[in-house]
Amino acid sequence: MPDSPVGTDAASVDKEMAKSRSRIPPPRHSDVYPSSLSKIAGVRLSGKELSTAWDVSIVEGRISSIDQHDPDAAVQLPSHDVLDGANRLLAPSLCHAHIHLDKCFLLQDPKYSDLQMENGDFQEAMDMTGKAKARFGEDDLLRRGRQLIEESIHHGVTAMRAFVEVDGHVQFKCLDAGLQLKEEFEHRCDIQICAFAQLPLFSGNDGGEEVRKLMSAAAQEEGVDVLGSTPYVEADEAKQKMNVCWISTLALSHAKHLDLHLDYFLEEHKQPLVWSVLDIVKDRNWLARQGKQITLGHCTRLTRFKDEEWSKLRQCIADLPVSFVGLPTSDLFMMRTPEGHRGTLPVVDMIHRYGLDAAIGINNVGNAFTPHGNCDPLSIASMGVGIYHAGAKKDAETLYEAVSSRAKAVIGHESTSLGLKVGELADFVLFDGTKSGWRSRKSIAEVVYDPATSRQTIRRGRMTAL
Ligand SMILES: [Zn+2]
């Protein structure tokens, strides 16, 4: 006879079992779609002759060859491991360089239906998100986070940097949910978890002691890939520098990437912290000590830079692995000076004119900081055509890269290039349906101008979304 649990009655055992059952993730996608593709046949490729179709072969999750398509071989389709490209455009998969997993869909989730926007300003966003955070529970963190990842995969995402907050209010609730989702989706999406201190590390009632204690514990977690903070929330400049010193030292000692929400203001008379950040990481000998990335998000103050400041920034960065992520939907919605000045990092110019590494990101989905938009990285690339006045083919391709290969590079993830090369990861998006006819997108620029909603996502040579 099996042992009965000591000190528990049948009802509490049932309750415990029901609880643990609810924690078991649904069947993995790879259990349902087990087959790896050996070839994607008859696709259009960026940078190659438009009138020619190509076959992309895959071995062990990587591109093994790219050959001219033989139309006669097509009669053997469909085959279980050969996907009919049907003359559609195959491009590298998409990436969220910066997305908040724990704060998503607060405006849609029924649990928070009483928290709706009345003013649409920064203070309201802070207040509403604070109220919502006080009610965060494992169930809704998992439900909302899972929805965000699932929708992202359907848009063509195979990698993301997901931010989860750590502070005295939420403790490790957001982090635990993030780590659970990372594991649940490990075969469909590479999820980097960024343990993130939105609150001050050195200001506030207790001088930030609790947040520092919690962040130190979070840094011990193996599943945490990135440590992040928000220096601009500190009370003064000295504390902002202490924030950067502390979090960069923590990242170095635990061999994690560093990601800062930096210089999120527009006023010209207020000086940006970016110069101090570069001095601090140089002082800590970042370059020699590890191969991890330093990523700086928002940085709206830099939009006031003149030519010489951009050039100086490039020189100061030198070989440091520093890159920038513009977050245009949030920046433009949230930031405005009394004179009506608005701004978001000019990523296309930063890349082409100043040789900086940059990408763009969604940041928030469905909350008071960014109520508009969805989980599709291409939607902001498309919006970038207007924001950055970047309609030329080359610029549109850069915008695609900013949510694909460049986005992966800024988070330290292996990239697949726009033109696809043998040996690269077989991480792709196939655009349009097989019956789209002449409306099928033929080039990267066309996808950026008018993103197709019908897509198939392939990660390491496996279909992750149909
Ligand atoms: Zn953010």
Automatic annotation (TrEMBL):
Top-level division of the source organism's lineage: Eukaryota
Location of the region described as Disordered in the Swiss-Prot/TrEMBL record: 1-31
Coiled coil: none
Xref: InterPro entries: Metal-dep_hydrolase_composite (IPR011059), Metal_Hydrolase (IPR032466), Metallo-hydrolase_Enzymes (IPR052349)
One function term, GO molecular function aspect: hydrolase activity, acting on carbon-nitrogen (but not peptide) bonds, in cyclic amidines
Protein name: Cytosine deaminase protein-like protein
UniProt organism field: Massarina eburnea CBS 473.64
Source lineage: Eukaryota, Fungi, Dikarya, Ascomycota, Pezizomycotina
